[in-house]
Fold this protein.
Amino acid sequence: MSWGLFKRNVLRKTNPNFNTLDVNKVAKIWADEYDAAVKRGRDLLNQESINRGNKQIMETLFRVALLKGLATPPGQDFSLVNEFGNGVKAYWAGAQMNPFPIPLIPAPGTIQNIAVNSNIVSNVGTWPMYPPIRPAKRQEIMINMFVLAAIVHLFSIGGFIQTTSLYPSAPSPVPAPAVIAWTAYLIPPAIPIPNINFPSADGSEPAVIQQPDNTPLSQLGPTQEYEEQELEETDILNGDTSLQNVIDTTIPEDVLDDELENILPDFISQLEMGGTKCE
């Protein structure tokens, strides 16, 4: 689930013109949509996705942030997106990753990985903090701010994969425990849709087709023909795994305006400083 779909879903479900929502419902919508979005992603190196995060804690902290915003007097500095960062980091604390696929790059000192025993997030990363800026007049602006901060944040999370791997030995390799460290998580800019024509008689049809991030909601479905988009990491980023390229590749076109573009260099410096600006 791409960031474009995340944005559209949050806007649709929290639009005050169509729904009368209390703080609890708004917090749940944001938490559900974030959880759904990141479950379509994977870490940059090993292509493993999250299995289970602390969604309930995130929802609770989102609720606290919303209540804090309602209680903040007009004129005082308050950023709901900055406050939401507490919930997002709590979501990733000790989060469980999927044990597949088995990483292709061997663990240090080994020649091949043969099984994944566990994969846990150990670094919740740095949530970039917005400086005091004028209050958002439209909800869409706040969602755009959240998406940019979320992409930057995902670039800083990390964890450890405990594997059973083969160590070089004579006369044959020896299996033993090993550890792989990973950093950075990516949400691809396309939406996986099951292909109703699969399997095809000649084997030419893929099981899943990837619909572009800017596909209108009315066109989402398996009956329309779409050009297949390969989602291997090297193809998405063309071998450039820098944060700037991740943002350029995965962020929807209608998110990054001039103001957010100017804030981005400070976000990158916050990651380089390990979150010291966020204390």
Q: What stands out?
A: The beta strands are 42-43, 50-52, 96-97, 112-123, 158-167, 174-183, 185-186, 190-194, 208-212. The radius of gyration is 20 Å. Residues 189-230 form one domain.
